[in-house]
């Protein structure tokens, strides 16, 4: 009977603690259009796979009458579970308990599950919904954040780290998501900022809403702090599961291989790219035309749209696509697109994911704004990332490949393993119009009919450089291929480079142009 009483007591205690801040607080959470922390975990993980740890942890604060308050689980839920039957570690801040504020024990629970994830070499998923540091615990709260940031950095490049912003995430708390690999946000629910609207009004006298300052659209379209944007929590959870299916569990593995599937037959690669090099098209159609089942998971879709990054599969194997987008700004490189691509390249390299580059761009974006924004430093990040990467690197030049942009987009000169070009490829220092005006400036100026001579010189330049054969003759391009051969060449190249070894000089680490 004693054991039975103990079991009943355990069940009662569990039931009480699992209510978090209580039914009224849960009702308030639901009224805001938000799921509870526990519901969020269950929505992401496989059914009945969650195992919770530290359920009965309590805070240790004694100041400001904190000794009289009971904070179940200290406002955070941690544990392990599975996604597609593969183990993951997860934590979720519980806004119903003291606004999900971070105190010492709250932080210790998070760092405990982070340590567990790193030790077991499995992904860590963090769900952020917190009012910030618990003021009543003073420096202990700040210490807690520091411990989390340190672990984020230790785990970087070793295990996948995913942050889900499902409520406020302010002050020092925002640096943990910024240190992770992928950040998910949801419209009208996610809020991220260093200083809130009230502080900004006090210090600067400016009035702005939380949504305008750090809402989901702001971070997915303007700041680039978010990688995935969703219109609902359920859509967000589906995005997480989709991402998880493309990436390996740690840096010693490769992503799980799927049965190969042919691309959708309706996508004919030869019909996508216009013959006129000045006409735009959607590069994502090319990606889908060469990917298994035409499936493509785009990352940072709404930020720096002149470049496209994301995951697809070729012959069942995950690859990372980096592609110029002629549909926006002609696919030029600039500060934001360079940052976006460079970070993704480094992620792929860290987790053994081959990189396929699709090139069609006129170079770097000119202008005072870009120069003053540091396009030299930002552009150099892309050069560094490609040069540093040791995974298989394959480039296909579709149309324009001008100037420094040609070099930056995984050229042979930066260590590309395979470089292919379509017959429509144009590889030159600059476009024919600009080049003709410089190279033949004197002849054009002295001609009786400058416009006619300019046209002739432009055609002369095109004939010499607006094709891939000059570069091919010098060995900078491995093969000029028909567009319809693109997928077959990618399959062959990936198969051939499956056991690639790229030795580099011994060093502690390089110094990227941060």
Condensed summary:
The chain has 514 residues and is of the alpha/beta class.
Can you walk through the features of this model?
With 514 residues, the chain is α/β, with parallel strands linked by helices. The protein has helices at 2-17, 23-31, 37-44, 104-120, 139-155, 175-179, 197-204, 210-214, 216-223, 233-246, 283-290, 335-350, 368-372, 375-388, 403-408, 432-439, 441-446, 450-465, 469-473, 486-496, and strands spanning 51-53, 76-83, 86-93, 124-128, 161-165, 168-170, 182-186, 191-193, 228-230, 296-299, 307-314, 317-324, 355-361, 393-402, 418-421, 426-428, 479-480. It is built from 20 helices and 17 strands. The strands form three sheets. Strands 10, 11, 12, 13, 14, 15, 16 and 17 form an eight-stranded mixed sheet that branches. The protein has a seven-stranded mixed sheet with strand order 1-2-3-4-5-7-9, with helices on both faces. It has a two-stranded parallel ribbon with strand order 6-8. Helix 4 (104-120) packs parallel to helix 5.
